[in-house]
Specification:
Length: about 80
C-alpha cells in the first residue's frame, strides 16, 4: 500500500500510522503525548465541512486534529 498523509484519507477508512513527517517538528511532542505513534491503527470518523478539523478514532477514544497536524502524519490505508 502507498504511504499517504492522514489529511488525504477519506472518512470511514482505516489507516496504520507509519511515521511522523519532518514538518511535524513544532507539534511532534504533542502528537506523541496524545498517543499518535507509529504502528497505531486509526479510523477517520468525519471531516468538517470546510476540511478542518478531522476527527479520528484510535485506541478507544476520539480525537480531533487540525488539517496541518494531520498532514504531518504519514499513514498506510488498510482495508
Amino acid at each position: 500500500m502507498p504511504v499517504v498523509t492522514l489529511d488525504s484519507v477519506p472518512f470511514g477508512q482505516q489507516a496504520l500510522i507509519t511515521e511522523l513527517a519532518e514538518n511535524a517538528a513544532p507539534f511532534r511532542r504533542k502528537l506523541l503525548a496524545m498517543g499518535i505513534t507509529p504502528g497505531c491503527l486509526l479510523r477517520v470518523i468525519r471531516v468538517a465541512p470546510l476540511g478542518d478539523p478531522i476527527e479520528i478514532e484510535m485506541r478507544g477514544f476520539h480525537l480531533c486534529l487540525r488539517r496541518n497536524e494531520a498532514a504531518a502524519i504519514k499513514v498506510e490505508i488498510t482495508c
